[in-house]
Amino acid sequence: MFDLNEIRKRAQQASEQAADSMKKTLDKSQEILDGIQVPDSEDSPSVSAAQAEEQIAANTQRQVEILGQMFPPDSMAQMAVNEELLQKMVNDKVAEATASTAEGIMGQLFGEDMGVLAAALETLELEDAEEEEELSFSPELEESLYTTLEEAMARIEAMPEPEPIPYQKDDIKWERFGILLSGILSTLNSHNLDSMDVEEHIPVMEQKVVSLVRRSWGIDGRSDLLDMIRYLAQEGYILRYQLYGEASSPEELMDETMDEDDCMSACRAWRFAQRYKSRYAPGFMAGWDVGRAAMLTRWGCYIGWLTESEAVGILWDLSHKAAEELHSWREFAQSYLFGGLMWKLLCGDSSAASYLGYLADAATDLLTGKAGQGNGQWRDCPWPAQRKVGFTL
Fold first, then answer.
1. Does 383 have pLDDT greater than 80?
2. Are residues 259 and 125 part of one domain?
């Protein structure tokens, strides 16, 4: 995160140093120029206006010639643009700091799990959404969000997808499949999906990912990262959805440490689970948990908190979990939308409708994009077919 005041201070210091250096140089040249007398019409009334103007022009030309002798042409040109370059440096740094600061603000606003959206907001055109007045939750809004979810899931269901194919135990396709489990977040962030690395290894991008993981997920190193991945792989929203679905009332989910907002969040999530528990088993949440865990794994490898072999092993386990619980990329995407809405209800974020739209658009790109144009990666990597259990006589 850049310190805006520090950037301005350093830029001002650089500007002052450059100006001081230029002043010293020009002071030296002035010693030479002092010997040239400029006619003053008030001190020399006998000199005509035309003669004075001619003399001034000649004197100016002489000054230019002297400066030209003191400085080569490229130095003269550089001196002429120094101020413009300094100003551009200040503007660029301020813009960079402002963009970086936005990430931190989003993390503070939306909490620990903001890794799903914080980075996405850096690449999506959301100015119009940010200017909209935030809506307060109401029964009508909740109903409209359920409608939005179901419409988005139906839209995904209608997408074409190759039939699942068998993967051998040591099939290299598992590694590719594991990377693509991060597909939705990677698409929202314009990350690379062709290898483990999410971006080219340059310091500014590495720091950007470190900042995202720390500020948006509350992860401050390797240990925290492994704990979060383990939580998502073993408990996550699968367990949370199960607990909310099994509770006979939202009060069963509350305790004395919860404030009014927490209680309202629990009520919204309880109503969500009660509405869908007969249609979707807890395992349906696997896509939401696994997709985020896969993204964290790739981020962790990129910034050096995990070795590549460790990341490959984690993605292997996540891949098998996804293949056991779900049956297609379409179902994986639907799971991601499903979990995303429950998360939004718990967070109390009324922008859930727009969020679901971004997720559905990313899934559509992954399922239907044209080969060679950076999309359609899910279409080009069929889902692993579930193995049938046979009987031995």
1. yes
2. yes
**Model-wide pTM > 0.90:** no
- The answer to whether residues 336 and 184 touch, using CB atoms and an 8 Å cutoff, is yes
Q: Are 371 and 383 in contact (CB under 8 A)?
A: no
Q: How far apart are CA 70 and CA 230, in angstroms?
A: 69
Identity of residue 121: L
Q: 175 — alpha (psi -120 to 50), left (phi > 0) or beta? A: alpha
Q: Does one domain contain both 99 and 127?
A: no
CB 290 within 8 A of CB 339: no
Measured distance CA(357)–CA(227) in Å, rounded: 30
Question: In this structure, which amino acid lies at residue 90?
Answer: V
Q: Which structure tokens are listed for 129?
A: 């959404």
CB atoms within 10 A of CB 203: 7
Q: Which residue has the tokens 């002052």?
A: 16
CA dihedral 319, 324, 325, 327 (to 10 degrees): 90
Instruction: Show the domain range for 217.
Output: 120-368
3-state secondary structure of 379: coil
- Report the C-alpha gap between 66 and 68 in whole angstroms: 5
b/e per residue 161-184 (b: at least 16 CB within 10 A) = beeeeebeeeeeebbbbbbbbbbb
Query: How many C-beta atoms lie closer than 10 Å to residue 111's C-beta?
Result: 15
Kindly report the backbone phi and psi dihedral angles of residue 120, in degrees, each rounded to the nearest multiple of 5, phi listed first.
-60, -35
Decide if 388 is inside a domain: no
**Residue 367 burial by CB count (10 A; 0-12/13-18/19+): exposed, middle or buried?**
buried
Helix 329-347 to helix 286-302 angle (10° resolution) is 90
Q: pLDDT, tens digit, for every residue of 289-314?
A: 999 999 999 999 999 999 999 999 99
102 has pLDDT over 50:
no
